Amino acid sequence: MTRIRIVRDERLAHRRLGRFELGALVLVAAGLVTLPAAAASGTGSVSATINVGSNALSLTVSPSTFDYCTPTAPLTFPNGPCPASSDVTVTFGNVGGHVDVNGADAVPLGGGTHWTLCGGTSGGPACTGGASETPGVDQYAEGEFIGTTVPTNALLGNAPICDLGFGPTCGEATAGQSATEKYVMVGPSSSSSTASSFSTSITWTALP
Fold it and tell me: Could you tell me the CA-to-CA distances from 120 to 25, 28, 81, 87, 162 in Å, in that order?
């Protein structure tokens, strides 16, 4: 009986495998064999940021100060008028609503008797200077020009009134709306204080 022994030459197998792999690469390079494409993703996304402004009622006022009369053209008695030295720009915030405005008494620098803000639309004290309702002793009046005049419903008092510079009904304001406003004051018939200057303020309030 003839016995046949088969011996596996590992080096030969390796050489054959190498030739096979090399041939496959040549076929792929020549475009004769197409390899399966890599699996594509079925979804795609992008990140986004949402920037949210404040939803609270707000407004800004510029400038922060102005003068009534000047050292070279001071207030005179009786009942001298003084326009504001600059207009005031009021800008509503990110939410619509309406704007109220109010004035305040005039306080003498260095002490003494205040000038009471009179004649206001919001029911403040009446001006006692005469039949024309001009300010009396230690009183003054203040109002906003609407067009070229100061209507009676734009006269300021210590209590808020609708700011007609924003809307003719009651200071209606849309988000981001601005109004440029001009003010004037009329001084008292006479003053108990000998102060050379007084201070006061105008305040705007944002409301729904």
Answer: 96, 94, 16, 20, 12
The answer to whether residue 192 scores a pLDDT higher than 70 is yes
Is the CB of residue 199 less than 8 Å from the CB of residue 105? no
The neighbour count for residue 182, using CB atoms within 10 Å, is 16
**Range(s) of the domain holding residue 152:** 59-208
Residues ≥6 apart with Cβ < 8 Å to 156: 101, 102, 103, 117, 120, 121, 142, 143, 144, 202
For residue range 122-138, list pLDDT tens digits in order: 878 999 998 778 999 99
If one counts the domains in the chain, the total is 1
Task: Please check whether residue 86 is in contact with residue 181, taking contact to mean a CB–CB distance below 8 angstroms.
Answer: no
Within-domain flag for 199: yes
Beta strands in 21-144 (DSSP E): 59-62, 81-83, 88-92, 97-102, 107-108, 116-117, 139-144
Q: Does residue 42 sit within a domain? A: no
- Does residue 28 sit within a domain? no
